[in-house]
């Protein structure tokens, strides 16, 4: 079941981020930073943070935004939603959550008059890139980031892989 994340879920959300970050480091050598709690609380309060529930447990989380200028540049003017920070509980890996998120996001984007669903990930994990394409996203290529002001630190001077799905 897909639902909005609640403030009372925030400790579990941060546990999932930590677990996902540790896993990400073993796969690609890149680790997520500690995310700002106020940023996550704001996403939750604005109904932009989501979860997949399985048997009463949070199995996966992600957030969305309607603007991502530092990453998407000129393309940011397109009508799109942007998915960020997909993190899966390791006890629920292999359940094709990105496919579920892609289907949900297409519908959510259409209901909000958006043409595209977009996301990015740090370069260096070809298996993940292939999985995102398998889930229906087009791989639009790589983008070398600059200082990435206003974004979490893992964007700073990173190379990002960009993905898009038509809603």
TrEMBL record:
PROSITE patterns in alphabetical order: GNAT
Protein name: GNAT family N-acetyltransferase
Keyword match Zinc-finger: no
Annotated SUPFAM superfamilies: Acyl-CoA N-acyltransferases (Nat)
Gene3D superfamilies: 3.40.630.30
Keywords (A to Z) from UniProt: Transferase
A GO MF label: acyltransferase activity, transferring groups other than amino-acyl groups
Transferase keyword on record: yes
Domain named N-acetyltransferase: residues: 1-166
Domain of life: Bacteria
